[in-house]
Design brief:
The longest helix is centred in the N-terminal third of the chain and has 15 residues, at 15-29. This protein is globular. A two-stranded parallel ribbon has the order 1-4. It has a two-stranded parallel sheet with strand order 2-3. The protein is mainly alpha-helical. The protein folds into two domains: 15-47; 50-194, Nitrile hydratase alpha /Thiocyanate hydrolase gamma (Nitrile Hydratase, Chain A, Alpha-Beta Complex), CATH 3.90.330. The protein is built from eleven helices and four strands.
């Protein structure tokens, strides 16, 4: 059977994944890691903790005004109502995007991040460039992410700390009236809840 050489090593995992697997093998062989515990941890961050949780929070706020009010007043409690609690999410604050203001979240000191609702922080969020430039020139950073601000829209930068972590409540896309929570949640990306993207309905 002919082999397609146009994509060399296309079936192999990426280099970081290979390194992770090699490290896992060594740790398991040395008895330092329990394979079952590791599998449970991976399952937790792949399927139970991640931006899909935050998307559910946003979708609920879009369809239930009372929930939205609670979210903006006490984000920790409102997020907890949906079962999303835990380490790195003890003190949450939700900030709402409006036609007058766009919110952007950064952690200038390290990489404080709301894991229960957004999962593991992306590499760019932890980079020195993002952490410094998001504060100095937020509009330029947003432009590089492809965010087109509305005319006259102000930008507010929120600096996460070990005590407080932020979740951006994006604006609900036009043309989604009558959509249910599941359909709305599918429009919400991790970056939109950081402020480096917008939520847009399919054309």
């Amino acid at each position: 059977m002919p082999h397609d050489h146009s994509q060399p090593h296309s079936l192999l995992p990426s280099d970081p994944e290979l390194r992770a697997r090699a490290l896992e093998t060594i740790l398991v062989k040395k008895g330092l890691v329990d394979p079952e515990a590791l599998s449970a941890l991976i399952d937790m961050y792949q399927n139970r903790i991640g931006p899909q949780n935050g998307a559910q929070v946003v979708a609920r706020a879009w369809v239930e005004p009372a929930y939205k009010a609670r979210l903006l007043q006490d984000a920790t409690g409102a997020i907890g109502e949906l079962g999303y609690t835990g380490r790195q999410g003890e003190h949450m604050v939700a900030v709402e995007n409006t036609p007058e203001r766009h919110n952007l979240v950064v952690c200038t000191l390290c990489s404080c991040y709301p894991w229960p609702v957004l999962g593991i922080p992306p590499a760019w969020y932890k980079s020195d460039a993002y952490r410094s430039r998001a504060v100095r020139e937020p509009r330029a950073v947003l432009k590089e992410f492809g965010v087109k601000l509305l005319e006259g829209q102000a930008v507010r930068v929120w600096d996460s700390t070990a005590e407080v972590r932020y979740l951006v409540l994006p604006m609900r896309p036009a043309g989604t009236g009558g959509w249910d929570e599941t359909a709305l949640a599918a429009l919400v990306s991790r970056n939109a809840m950081i402020g480096t993207a917008l939520c847009e309905a399919p054309a």
